[in-house]
Amino acid sequence: MATPTSTSLAHTCTRCLRSRTPQLSRQLYLPAISNNRTFSVLHRPPPNYPGHVPLKLPERLFLAAGSAIISLIDPRRGDLIALLGETTAQPYFIYRLRDRMLKHPTGRRILRDRPRITSQSLSLPYLRSLPANTIGATYVSWLDREGVSPDTRSEVRYIDDAECAYVMQRYRECHDFYHAITGLPIVREGEIALKVFEYANTGLPMTGLSAFSTLTVKKDERDRLLSVYFPWAIRNGWKAESLLNVYWEEVLEKDVQEMRDQLGIEVPPDLRKTRAEIRKKRREDKGGKVNTVAATTTNEVVEEAMVETEAEREEREQREIERQAMEILERADRM
Amino acid sequence: MRRSLLHLPIKRSAWAIRTSNVARIAATRSFASEASPNPEIYDIVVVGGGPVGLTLAASLGAARATSHLKVALIEGMNLASIRDWKPTPDYFANRIVSLIPSTVKLLKETGVWKHIKQERVQSYDGMQVWDGMTDARVEFDWNKLLGGRQEGVDTTIAHMVENIHLSHGLLQRLEELAVKPTMIDKTKVEKIEYGQLTEEVDMRDWPIVTLSNGQKLGAKLLIGADGGSSPVRTFAGIESRGWDYNRHSMVATFKIEDDSAFPKFAYQRFLPSGPVAILPLPGNFANLAWSTTPEKVAHLKSLAPEDFVAMVNAAFRLSYTDIDYLHNLKSGVVEETKWRESVTKYPDPPTIPMRITEVLEGTRASFPLKMKHADRYIGERIALVGDAAHTIHPMAGQGLNAGVGDVYSLVKSIADGISHGQDIGSSFTLEPYQSERYLPNNALLGFVDKLHTLYGFESGPLVPLRSLGVEIINQDWFGLKKFLMSQAAKS
Fold first, then answer.
1. Annotation-wise, does A255 bind a ligand?
2. Predicted complex ipTM
3. Span A26-51, pLDDT tens digits
4. Mean pLDDT throughout B243-254?
5. In angstroms, what separates the C-alpha of B324 from chain A's closest C-alpha?
6. What is residue A142's predicted lDDT score, i.e. its pLDDT?
7. How much is the average pLDDT of A265-286?
8. Mutate to test the interface with A, among B133, B343, B458 (most CBs of A within 10 A)
9. Which chain B residues are closer than 8 Å to A112 by Cβ?
10. Which residues of chain A are within 8 Å of residue B345 when distances are taken between CB atoms?
11. Known binder of ligand: residue A179?
């Protein structure tokens, strides 16, 4: 029944303190009982910010599980990875990250200004004109090399708190800067390494869950990740200052190495170069093999010997890369 | 079972009269011999003229069994300023006390309450207490619990009275007593020692108090109402154990937005650095009690008035992360809180206090917080009451109430002793006081101390657990809430 003396408190959901404005029922002159109807699929509360979609817990769990499974199968589904990030960041992690920003003067300023990184807010031609050693130039050269744009980031929708939604958005938009400052490419291997780095740095569950996609990469890549890049990512992500507290727009003209030193990040072994070298070697070997096969038409013994040497060489190269990487890390440690 | 003080048996034993004679003789002697001034003998010497000491003097004078006793009260401060206190309707002092119904009952029985100006007393029926980290809330509201206001049921949780107002009322009551206690103010206790064996009288087990003006008082019973660092307790060799919380309590009086639409509530939010409370005063006034670290208190005191007001408003609205950050700002708090409040969700009054508009000038003050409990409340010819016996964290507003409870119990023990012809100073007479008060006080101190510890955690497993506990209490499962509230009303 309609209660004529309904106070302002009666319009507030006691669980979420969200205002329960009875829009539909007002329009249809339904009895006021619909005011007290709880949050359901048919009765979604109004959004907290433009684009916000409030979710019920089962919905959230379903979306999280679904996006996790499909993005594991098809890691090119960036939208699903983003969805996984949003659905798992609540209730605890995104608030903790927000509080970490609030405790830091720069992070606080970012939350106050809420700057967005787009191709409009950043002048890419200007960044290209900067000296090569600056963050801006590194960032833009990285964008150019990878063929991506700052506008490829989708909007946050499933984080309930408007400020936390911005934190998620900021994390997402700054992701390209993390690529730039670490130099990790957007091939799967690089993404996984960077995600683990982010997990150690931000504590967002999605970034940690991404480590599971190690299971889906090739064996040599997996070995490289586990032995070189994961140790690097965990150590650096943990001890480096929170990357969300960097006002990237203000440090574009800064020297990238200086910034790395300031944040406490060591450069990992250049993954793109390593992979290119391996590919090149492999191609050379394959070419050699074809030549040999062409020369000695059906010499099984020779071919077998070649196959053996190829496998051996690959293993040796792998060891060499690892050794180099460990050397770099050790040197960095001593520093 | 508690008997009313005024209905205690009036039976003056022969012994009591005899000792009074002794006192009179000794008093005249001290006048006669100038070479070695003998102490003036009193039945009871009360050290300390704070609310508890004054209540003790008033209760002794009001109870029939003890009204004939010769009582002296020693106070270091000037009592004249309290006696001449002239209240103005647009100013409230910063030091206020919350008097629970059982305390008010005693004050009524001793005839003090009629001297308290009711228009300057604010009672409240409800309390809102919540966790600064999780927002888990417990709502103590008799009217809600009983399903609406009921006739003939006193639903008051406590009455807020200014300290000076209460002391003023107590002094007025002392004025009208038939046997007035000797009030010695602006005088400090120089020395306490045992008396000597002379030809006339053996005073070797009597405490002799030497005052800063050279006066000497011999006490059959010396009562220490002299606060946390009690000289009487030191003299008696009674150890007081406890610890410093490393917290200070910041107090101030405010003007608030018009709250006439809402019932008067007391509000307390538990922040990890300590609880912050807003207590109601008549009209659009309110009082702050904010326990936090000494550095943060120093910061609060150094802020400009408008920044301070913004800070206190923020303390009931913003997250602890923000409050902690605001403590680093030397200025611009108004700006910063405006932004934070625009992006933070918080409930509306009366769930949280009304917005504060201004702080009354010169009302910002602070004092350190301690937890201390004396091993014993009594010794031979010694008794301790109030803060001298136990110092408590002020979060529950129980310090003075416990002190008044001590007074009630001690006066009853003395009256019983007199009616049975015992020496009022003997530990045999005082023993009931100690046994009646020690355990309840210890439980109260322990409870408040544990609350302080429990709410000191910023994160970890205890944070959700304490919130769960608060939710259970708030749902009034097992009648837990009713039980707690009725205990708090009569503790």
1. no
2. 0.74
3. 444 444 444 455 666 677 788 888 88
4. 94
5. 8
6. 79
7. 83
8. B343
9. 339
10. 17, 161
11. yes
Q: How far apart are CA B60 and CA B66, in angstroms?
A: 5
The tens digit of pLDDT for each residue in B442-455 reads 999 999 999 999 99
At B202 the pLDDT is 82
Q: Which residue has the tokens 């004078």?
A: B61
A176 marked as binding residue: yes
Domains in chain B: ranges and CATH = 9-100+164-239+375-449 (3.50.50.60), 245-367 (3.30.9.10)
Please answer yes or no on whether B324 and A103 come within 8 Å at the CB atom: yes
Give the whole-angstrom CA distance, residue B35 versus residue A23.
95
**What are the chain B neighbours of A99 within 8 Å (beta carbons)?**
319, 321
Tokens of residue A238, six digits: 């943990």
State which residue of chain A sits closest to B325, comparing Cα positions: A103
Residue A7's pLDDT band (boundaries 50, 70, 90)? Answer: very low
Per CB-CB distance under 8 Å, the chain A contacts of B324 are 103
Greater pLDDT, A223 or B7: A223
Contact B319 A8 (CB under 8 A): no
Confidence of residue A12 (pLDDT cuts 50, 70, 90): very low
A130-176 pLDDT tens trace: 888 888 888 888 788 777 788 878 888 999 999 999 999 999 888 88
Average pLDDT, chain B: 88
Could you say which of A12, A102, A112 has the minimum Cβ distance to residue B321? A102
User: A7, A48, A98, A102: best mutation site toward chain B, by most B Cβ within 10 Å?
Assistant: A102
pLDDT for B184 equals 94
pLDDT tens string A92-121: 899 999 999 999 999 999 999 999 988 888
* A7 close to B (CB below 8 A): no
Yes or no, beta carbons of A103 and B319 under 8 Å apart: no
Give A188 to chain B, closest Cα distance, Å.
36
Q: Identify all chain B residues contacting A12, using CB atoms and an 8 Å cutoff.
A: 347
Kindly indicate the confidence band of residue B12, based on its pLDDT and cuts at 50, 70 and 90. very low
A113 touches chain B (CB under 8 A): no
CA distance B85 to B161: 14
A191 is in an annotated binding site: yes
Residues of B in contact with A162 (CB under 8 A): 343
